[in-house]
Amino acid sequence: MADLDPQETRLVLDPAVRDDARSRLRSIRGHVEGILRMLERDDVYCVDALKQIKAVNGALAKTGDMILRCHLKHHVVTAHERGDDEAIVAELMDILKYR
Amino acid sequence: MADLDPQETRLVLDPAVRDDARSRLRSIRGHVEGILRMLERDDVYCVDALKQIKAVNGALAKTGDMILRCHLKHHVVTAHERGDDEAIVAELMDILKYR
Amino acid sequence: MADLDPQETRLVLDPAVRDDARSRLRSIRGHVEGILRMLERDDVYCVDALKQIKAVNGALAKTGDMILRCHLKHHVVTAHERGDDEAIVAELMDILKYR
Amino acid sequence: MADLDPQETRLVLDPAVRDDARSRLRSIRGHVEGILRMLERDDVYCVDALKQIKAVNGALAKTGDMILRCHLKHHVVTAHERGDDEAIVAELMDILKYR
């Protein structure tokens, strides 16, 4: 984690984005439970299970995008003013690998 | 779903792969709960949350790979003999989009 | 490469797909040259260069999909009959990593 | 393109990165020509062609990463000071889709 002023390291998700992220993750958890049930039945077709896993991956990616957008808006665009641009850019390039 | 002989449409995951897939999904569910807890605290750094989401995505992708490998081994390599190769190939290309 | 009967290892791209793949690659080459010219000018905006690289990546992925579909149709769905399913599946899973 | 002060919209690739990006693109162009030659021969195995396309995709992605890192360092971390953070963030989220 970039050695930032502690105040700036808070997850500055504005309330609407945070609530949205949490409700998406709750439905993702429900979706994972659905795949678990699916894998207990021996009459499911593997491509149907693959489609469910792909859908969960997509929902997770959207949740990540919301948090990434907030991070860009609140931490990255102000990094030069704070003086931690090197660390913030390095951290961001790392998280963006294999997105 | 390909109009296959019903017997072939079962998720032919051999027991070891199926158990492995289920235990991975149980740990993925636990991991999602961890991110939910993380997002309740207002002192978490957004990049830490992004790393957790990325880790869950990776674990889901591995679970999907296991099921895909089984599907290739049991359904795809025998499709020509069954006569449903067109449907099996179309279905597979669809599931592989944006992997 | 799977130890296949030499006859089956030919790139069984039917003529239409092969011509299409070659014309796409020729336009991709032209597109790469365009980015090279872009990077010589010092008035280009980096996001414009990134968009061009992304477009080339997309065109390459489409060309790859065409060849993959042909490989599935001609080599993979008949692998069990030939007896090289293990090698064909291993090779396919390798090529699909980080798609 | 973000309505930036024209001076800031130049591709601020420092000379070393720009030269590196251009030499990578020249070798990518050569690599694409190699795949074109490969697709003329009818004895090539499709998976070999797919591996070459994947390698070119990887080289393009690395070139893009170099330009992205420079954009983050020179344009994004200073966006708040310039006052165009909204446009810069929107543009960045767009370019990062399906990376």
From TrEMBL, chains A, B, C, D:
GO cellular component, as recorded: cytoplasm
Single annotated GO MF: DNA binding
Cellular localization per UniProt: Cytoplasm
Keywords: Cytoplasm, Metal-binding
InterPro entries tied to this protein: Metal_Tscrpt_repr, Metal_Tscrpt_repr_sf
Family statement drawn from the similarity comment of this UniProt entry: Belongs to the FrmR/RcnR family.
Assembly information from the UniProt record: Homodimer.
Name of the protein this chain belongs to: Copper-sensing transcriptional repressor CsoR
